[in-house]
Design a protein that fits this description.
eight-stranded mixed β-sheet, single chain
């Protein structure tokens, strides 16, 4: 799902909403879920995989070790965690496909320009694609730092690390921007997750809620169907920092504005997975999509989107969205 920025929200709302993936929707009630309209599996194609499984958390440990080494300026340890060649896809569209030594030169230059880097970990897990036999470490975190001019910068990331033989072979980075006037966050004690690091595979049927929602959004005549997938109140945090927080009807009014301003919208699913946080008792559907749309002025746009859908009683209660730009659309 890709929505344009048309609303601004107060700081307190932003702080609550961005933390909701960590706290606000952390528990689910035990009321019976409403019946979900199924999307037949044979009609839904995945560019990468629709069958992902939980994996050995040692793969996430590599991810955490890298991030902590970078935060401490320990580039020697960071270098030891990469494979001989690395593919790096940054959220702004920059792509590096380089040797480990070349990557470390790039990282030295970048992190040499920042100071007071602090990483706040929200969630982490390890997954595997049985079809491709790929191991991934997934990380959700906020980075706070001062740039070369001393300005404080903050950004939320969702990053996917491909692990081969215990080394990082590739990183795909998605970002969610933080408004400049949003309240600063406080680092977790001893690196604990602010949301959860305890995950099991979830109820696979919940995929149908997210598939149905996105498929309905792609057709202007199906917006009433789209509304049926939402809870009575919904919070959506878009990749650009925009927040829509309100009733189902108010969120759908926002969606209708976007649909009215787009002549086309295509959502292709790269991957999808349902997970359950055992310590927060929450169901989350994670999706990775390739999205293209044309606005009412004929401008074509393209982004890769990662979204985390928190569901309650089979309905979408919250969406956290992160984006990776097309390299051609880099600002």
């Amino acid at each position: 799902m890709r929505l344009n920025k048309r609303y601004t929200m107060k700081n307190l709302i932003y702080a609550c909403a961005v933390l909701a993936f960590m706290m606000a929707c952390g528990t689910t009630t035990k009321e019976p879920a409403e019946e979900v309209v199924e999307v037949p599996e044979e009609t839904q194609k995945y560019n990468y995989s629709g069958n992902l499984e939980m994996s050995d958390m040692s793969n996430y440990a590599v991810v955490r070790q890298l991030n902590e080494a970078i935060a401490q300026g320990d580039m020697e340890t960071a270098s030891s965690l990469f494979a001989d060649s690395v593919s790096l896809y940054l959220w702004d569209g920059t792509i590096y496909d380089v040797t480990r030594d070349s990557l470390m030169s790039i990282m030295d230059g970048y992190f040499g320009e920042v100071s007071n880097l602090e990483i706040i970990y929200h969630a982490g897990m390890a997954i595997n694609s049985p079809k491709q036999n790929d191991d991934w470490g997934l990380n959700w975190a906020t980075e706070q730092y001062n740039d070369s001019e001393g300005k404080q910068m903050r950004i939320n990331y969702q990053e996917n690390y491909l692990i081969e033989n215990g080394k990082i072979r590739s990183i795909r980075q998605y970002a969610q921007l933080v408004p400049e006037d949003a309240p600063a966050m406080t680092a977790n004690e001893e690196g604990e997750f602010s949301y959860s690091g305890s995950w099991v595979e979830g109820d696979d049927s919940l995929k149908e809620v997210v598939l149905g929602w996105n498929n309905a959004l792609a057709s202007p005549t199906e917006l009433e169907t789209a509304a049926s997938y939402l809870a009575d109140s919904v919070t959506v945090v878009m990749w650009d920092g925009t927040i829509v927080d309100g009733t189902k009807d108010s969120v759908m009014n926002y969606v209708k504005e976007f649909v009215a301003g787009a002549s086309s919208l295509t959502v292709d699913f790269d991957a999808i997975m349902v997970v359950h946080s055992t310590d927060m008792n929450s169901d989350v559907v994670m999706s990775w999509t390739d999205e293209r749309w044309t606005d009412d002025e004929g401008t074509e746009e393209h982004m890769w989107i990662h979204e985390d859908y928190i569901l309650e009683n089979g309905k979408i209660r919250m969406v956290q969205q992160y984006a990776m730009k097309d390299s051609k659309s880099k600002e």
